[in-house]
Amino acid sequence: MYEENVEFEGHPTKSLTRNTVTMVFCVLLSGFALHKWAGFTNDQVIASSIFLATVLGTLMFWSFRVGIAFIGIALLLLTRVIDVEHTVEFAALDVILFLVGMMITVGLLREVGVFRWLMIKMVKATRFQVGRIVVLLCFTSAVLAMAVGEVISIVFIAAIVLELCEYLKTNPVPLLITSVLATNVGSAGTLLGNPIGVLIAMKSGLSFEDFMLWAFPVSILSLIATIIVVFIFYRKEFDDLKKKVRVSSEKLGRTGFLDEWSVVRDRKEFYKAVSIFVFVLGFIALHRRIEELMGLGHNVMLLAASLTGSGIVMLWKRTKARLYLERDVDWWTLTFFMLLFAKAGALAYTGVTDEIAKAIAGFAGHSMPVLITVILWVSCIGSSMLDNVVLVAALIPVIKSFQGIVPSLDPLWWALLFGGCFGGNITMVGSTANIIALGILEKKERIIITFFRWFWVGLVAGAVATLVAQIMLLLLWPHQVG
Questions:
Q1: Distance, CA of 168 to CA of 162 (rounded, Å)
Q2: Cβ–Cβ contacts within 10 Å for residue 303, how many?
Q3: Which of 175, 215, 266, 406 has a Cα-to-Cα distance from 462 of 20 to 30 A?
């Protein structure tokens, strides 16, 4: 264990009481304001208040987030804001099953030594230079997110980071946060990178080629800006890492560290595990085309690829199947996801997200530069607090309402994409990748990151990346219209 951040330092009881009073006060005040001045119905006030309580509770009491989420769902059911059927519908079980399958496959790869093998390959490619390690890690995170999505990317990258830091006996927090920031930025580069990219493409008609032409360059520029931010913010940590790498490169070099195959016990199993992963990865990358070719529903092949891969793993390693399911699947984080998705769905179910969308439309007017700016920053700030899929789904009808009023809707779609992806970097709960990475860190290393440990670097990185996107959008939108 390298470091453990506890949430209530000094006087646990006083901190717990203070944070609880603060959370209750904020929830009651917001509920009163929404009812008094926004004209929200009782159901809308309850849904908004419970969701806000969950967000604040997660930020203030990270270790208690699942318990808070359970109570929130119970209150939604008891107040009849939402029924059991819709709770199950909004829980996104397809996403949960997809993650379960991928975590099992990741467990196999970790067991046969794939991540240590990759880690040594990466360090050798950088010649033990910390700057190169960080840059390569960021670009690997971003490119992998573009290829297979942010969720799969961070599961694999987190495993590599933890293996690297275990070898170097150093704190994994700076490198893990850096990887997550790069993953979120990179996820905007292609249609496959983020669920909101898929949603926008389906509703707007934008193609994979459109994403490569317009989103990919902006994502790369924003990634470079993000890398600069983390180098500045973590300069002290990276200086310390340089010393660790210098010592480790000399010590471990004499004990076989430079031989990547020294960490692989059975090459035959290694190749079989990699083959299973490549099989899953290929079907994930081509899932949309396969679904269209076979006439399957949306994301059927995506889910089938994950479940088939994990099924093959458990059949092959049948004596360890239960171990993979219990040890490698992060049920704590997945349970939190289900409850959070259900609460976010309650916002849409009660019409809260529609009210938010109407307010944005009324404020922005019909000026394209103003619309781009408003959509970009509202989605950025909103995604730092809400599930970005729910937020984007609410804003899509708003953007469509400008059809025929503005020359082209394309710049607005890109603003929504970049704001939703980059804003996820601001807080720990801003994106799925963030929560998964923190769950892995907590499960594997027993390290808990406090809110402000993430917030300051996330705020600067998210704001800078969004600012880069705004500049590019304002420069490019006349060409998109033309």
A1: 10
A2: 18
A3: 406
Contacts of 257 (CB under 8 A, 6+ apart): 120, 167, 248, 249
The distance of Cα 191 from the centroid of its chain, to the nearest Å, equals: 15
Is the Cβ–Cβ distance between 170 and 243 less than 8 Å?
no
Give the Å distances, CA to CA, from 275 to 94, 101, 177. Answer: 24, 16, 29
Taking only the tens of pLDDT, the chain with its 482 residues reads: 444 444 433 445 667 788 889 989 999 999 999 998 888 999 999 999 998 898 888 778 877 889 999 999 999 999 999 999 999 998 888 888 988 998 899 889 888 988 878 877 887 788 778 899 999 999 999 998 887 778 878 988 998 899 888 877 888 999 999 999 999 999 999 887 888 887 788 788 787 778 889 999 999 999 999 999 999 999 999 988 888 777 766 665 544 455 778 778 899 999 999 999 999 888 887 877 888 899 998 778 888 999 999 999 999 999 999 999 998 888 988 898 889 888 888 988 998 878 877 787 777 777 789 889 999 999 999 888 776 776 787 788 778 877 777 778 899 999 999 999 999 999 988 888 898 899 889 888 888 888 889 999 999 999 999 999 999 999 988 777 65
- What's this model's pTM, rounded to 2 decimal places? 0.77
Domain boundaries, the chain: 82-476
Q: Are 234 and 465 in contact (CB under 8 A)?
A: no
Check residue 369 and give left, alpha or beta (phi > 0: left; psi -120 to 50: alpha). alpha
Distance CA 37, CA 19 (A): 26
